[in-house]
Write a structure and sequence with these properties.
The protein is an alpha/beta fold. 40% of the residues lie in helices and 17% in strands. The chain contains 19 helices and 17 strands. The strands form 3 sheets. It has an 8-stranded parallel β-barrel, surrounded by 6 helices. It is globular, with a radius of gyration of 24 Å.
């Protein structure tokens, strides 16, 4: 069934309705657990679910696999995102034919971001420069078979400098044959309400569904705002700043704000909301429960305690399966989680153009240039690196001097944390989780090591194997570790009143290798900022080919500074 027909039915019923959005997980375990999660969430009664599409078709196979399961196995009408950036006509047709074969009739046509190895987005053969071109092509070749949706931007597209022109581009997409609209997320209901009035005043009558993303963590929220420039009400910003040391309080606030926002939208006559889940379950279901929406939400049994988390053991109840990965799921989350890699990753792409990159990161031609750049970042002289689009967090101040030292020595750090031994969960810098608890963490450092230094560094790691766990890999795929097969290493854990030990941050072979390709691909992205045959581009490509990515965990968290002895 076409989503446009389902949306019309929902609108005619005069009742509120909702949909969900998921992304293809990075690991096989994450995908298996997402299927389990979608099966439960499907019982809530979404009008449809949507699955995102990686830049340049990077997730094409997994996106189609996930869409097929949602449509054919779980029986939920499914919208497949499809981008035309760096996609030629053959790739677009393959995606559309795959959708048809899976019984999927609904496509969200997007321009999309460039793939990670492209400096700029490029038009594909046949003139696919913008989403409107993709809409026209689908209509011309496939007629009315597909129900086509497009994105709307209440605050304007991030790349637009002319709000009026941006709105005209949106109108052109709809007039080209769109059947429905899903809006970009907003945190201010009034922004969407005023934009939707403008849409209707222009004579657009297709359904428009409002995008809503409950805040899941302070860091993911901060990064989202940094990258999208979405407007945030000052009251929400202030409350999040006050709660940022308490992960559960942040989640609670995210639910509270989403509920209030949806109620405001409903009061203005907006019935439909599109909930971005980030592949997590608990916050979205709590929003629906508070709103009295969702069949299972209204009849919820075995409801999870807010903030309860269970990892490393069998999950036997619905409550446990709903919340087991509810705490941070960023760079070092649990690779079994469907949400693994959703936040605090290396980033979708470099956010500078070539001129901006050269201005901030210079024109590196030697290893010393790289060492100097990383050292300037960890000392706060520059605010970003190709691998990190934000300044260092406050917790690194404790190890700032050592970070500067090791980077100058040629250990180019991407991630790190100090050892902690029972810090209060309410600590403004290091605390997380519910009040009344204590948090612990092992010192770890993730870094690139130039090929010439790697051998001696590996020898030191091996001589400290009784205390240290390490993972190392290069771009060619060589991998080595002293970790036991199939076992992970907890980096962070917390003990809270009346709850099981929570381990939100760990590393294992799966999670390390899941990020290896992206870590090395960023070197190639950076090189693409320069002319292909330039000294800078050649040097960066050669460095990527020769260096190793290494993660070192000191398991003795009682010896806070011992890890730095390895970096000589």
């Amino acid at each position: 069934m076409k989503v446009s027909d389902k949306l019309k039915q929902a609108e005619d019923s005069k009742q509120p309705y909702f949909s969900f959005e998921y992304f293809p997980p990075k690991t096989e375990q994450g995908l298996a657990n997402l299927y389990d999660r979608i099966e439960r969430m499907a019982r809530l009664g979404p009008v449809f679910v949507a699955v995102t599409w990686g830049a340049g078709g990077a997730t094409a196979q997994r996106t189609l696999e996930l869409c097929s399961a949602c449509q054919g196995v779980f029986g939920v009408e499914t919208v497949m995102h499809l981008t035309c950036t760096n996609m030629d006509i053959a790739q677009v047709d393959a995606a559309l034919e795959g959708a048809k074969a899976a019984g999927i009739q609904n496509i969200l046509a997007l321009r999309g971001d460039p793939p990670r190895d492209a400096e700029y987005w490029t038009a594909c053969e046949g003139g696919f420069s913008h989403a409107v071109d993709l809409v026209r092509y689908i209509r011309e070749k496939y007629g009315s078979y597909f129900c086509v949706g497009v994105a709307g931007y209440p605050e304007g597209h991030i790349e637009s400098t002319d709000a009026d022109q941006d709105f005209e581009y949106f109108v052109a997409k709809v007039e080209a044959g769109a059947d429905f609209v899903v809006s970009q997320l907003a945190y201010d209901a009034n922004v969407f309400i005023q934009w939707e009035k403008k849409v209707r005043a222009r004579g657009i009558t297709v359904p428009v569904v409002a995008g809503v993303l409950p805040v899941q963590s302070y860091q993911s929220f901060r990064r989202l705002v940094f990258l999208t420039k979405v407007a945030v009400p000052e009251a929400l910003r202030e409350r999040l700043e006050e709660a940022k040391a308490n992960d559960q309080a942040v989640k609670d606030l995210g639910v509270e704000h989403a509920v209030a926002m949806v109620r405001q939208l409903q009061a203005a006559g907006v019935r439909g909301v599109h909930l971005t889940t980030l592949n997590l379950e608990n916050s979205v279901q709590r929003v629906l429960e508070a709103l009295g929406m969702g069949e299972a939400a209204m009849k919820s049994t075995g409801r999870a305690l807010a903030g309860q988390a269970v990892t490393g053991q069998a999950m036997t109840s619905t409550a446990e399966r709903r919340v087991w990965d509810d705490f941070p799921n960023g760079r070092w989350g649990d690779a079994r989680s469907p949400a693994f890699g959703s936040a605090d990753a290396y980033g979708a792409m470099l956010k500078f153009d070539a001129q901006g990159a050269a201005r901030v990161w210079g024109r590196p031609c030697t290893l010393d240039d790289i060492s100097s750049l990383f050292a300037r970042y960890v000392t706060g002289e520059i605010a970003s690196l190709p691998w990190s689009d934000e300044p260092l967090r406050a917790e690194t101040e404790r190890i700032g001097a050592e970070l500067a030292r090791v980077n100058r020595l040629g250990f180019w750090t991407l991630a790190s944390q100090p050892a902690l031994d029972g810090v209060a969960s309410t600590d403004a810098t290091h605390g997380w989780g519910p009040r009344g608890g204590y948090v612990y963490q092992k010192a770890f450092v993730e870094c690139f090591v130039a090929g010439a230094k790697f051998g001696s560094f590996l020898s030191r790691l091996q001589s400290s194997a009784s205390r240290v766990t390490y993972y190392a890999a290069n771009r060619q795929g060589d991998f080595m570790t002293n970790a036991h097969a199939g076992e992970g290493t907890a980096l962070t854990w917390g003990v809270f009143p009346g709850r099981a030990v929570v381990q939100p941050t760990l590393i294992d072979k799966i999670s390390f290798l899941a990020w290896r390709a992206e870590a090395f691909q960023t070197w190639r992205e950076w090189a693409a900022m320069f002319a292909q045959a330039s000294q800078e581009a050649c040097f960066l490509r050669e460095t990527a080919d020769e260096c190793w990515l290494v993660n070192v965990v000191d398991n003795d968290y009682k010896q806070a500074d011992a890890i730095w002895e390895l970096f000589q």
